[in-house]
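Supplementary Text 2. Reproducibility record for the structural model of the 80-residue chain.

All settings were left at their defaults, and a single model was retained for analysis rather than an ensemble. We include the record here because the model underlies the residue-level annotations in Supplementary Table 4.
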Amino acid sequence: MSYALFATVAALVALCVLAELLAAVVPLVVVIAFVPPEERPALAVTLAAADSSRRLRLWPALRVAVTARRVSRRRRGSPR
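Retained model, structure tokens:
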């Protein structure tokens, strides 16, 4: 009985560790395989702005991006 319980707990722990490793590695593989090298710094900045920390920094980054877009459109003379 005790061996079966130990094996079950060990399998559950191994499954959790494997899931965490896959969750960490798969996005990295996707970025390396599908994102062109010249776009990786911009993607890194975007991902850093949208990280899952308590204080989400996505909105300030979005405001800066919108302001930069408006300035670039104004310089080109494009209408809104």
